[in-house]
Design a protein that fits this description.
This protein has about 240 residues and is an all-alpha fold. The chain has eleven helices and two strands; from the N terminus they run H-H-H-H-H-H-H-E-E-H-H-H-H.
């Protein structure tokens, strides 16, 4: 009897495994098709050129270190160590989503965000996510980490019509990105997470709450100390 039950369970596991593998294959194939439709690797250089030709493009090496550290700590703390996707972040997001009973966390890396923003829609479906992964791998092959980060920072949306850190710093603070202080850096680093929610002109208090989260992440990652973080917040009055 026990042998029959065991054999039945093994058969069921085998069937489920084959079904999952088949589903994964179909999703992967559709995702690769979307990746090819978006232009594949051939579209990357055109994308990069378009971003670099923007009027307010800012070279990565001229940006304040505080801003770069704030973005890395908040958006993708293993950015310089992963290969386009972050398995640890994906696993954590999966657990959180199961606990929440909905898609509450994405686990996307900076590379994936650049791929999604430049080539795909914001729709949440598996084939689009697979296409994003294919494009992320292509980005990592084509560009250095510094180039990917530079393209990302110069193209993300900050709300109120501002795209890229150059436009955002001028629009919100009336200064070039190279002149941003620690307070401005950490405030701007939090906006792209939800630009409409943290819009400075409409929801300044929410933007400052998000800034506090950014600073906590920076402390956790060892970029700044607790007292330094408090001083940054105090600088805003």
């Amino acid at each position: 009897m026990i042998q029959k039950i065991t054999a039945g369970l093994l058969t069921l596991c085998l069937i489920l495994g084959m079904a999952l593998a088949g589903t994964a294959f179909v999703i992967g194939a559709k995702g690769y098709g979307l990746y090819r439709q978006a232009g594949g690797a051939a579209a990357l250089m055109e994308m990069a050129q378009t971003i670099r030709e923007e009027e307010h493009f800012v070279p990565l090496e001229t940006l304040p270190e505080t801003y770069i550290n704030a973005v890395i700590a908040t958006e993708d703390k293993r950015f310089f160590r992963h290969f386009g996707i972050d398995p640890i972040a994906i696993a954590r997001a999966f657990v959180h989503n199961v606990q929440a009973g909905q898609i509450a966390e994405g686990g996307s890396t900076i590379t994936q965000q650049l791929a999604k923003n430049q080539f795909f829609t914001q729709e949440q479906h598996f084939s689009r996510k697979a296409a994003e992964v294919f494009m992320s791998f292509a980005l990592e092959r084509q560009f250095t980490k510094e180039e990917i980060l530079e393209l990302y920072l110069n193209s993300i949306y900050f709300g109120e019509g501002y795209y890229g850190i150059g436009q955002a710093s001028l629009g919100y603070f009336g200064m070039a990105a190279e002149q941003l202080g620690d307070y401005e850096c950490t405030l701007l680093a939090g906006l792209p997470n939800a630009p409409s929610v943290y819009a400075l002109s409409e929801n300044p208090h929410l933007a400052e709450q998000r800034q506090a989260q950014v600073l906590r992440q920076m402390v956790e990652e060892g970029y700044i100390g607790v007292q330094e973080a408090k001083a940054v917040l105090a600088a805003g009055g």
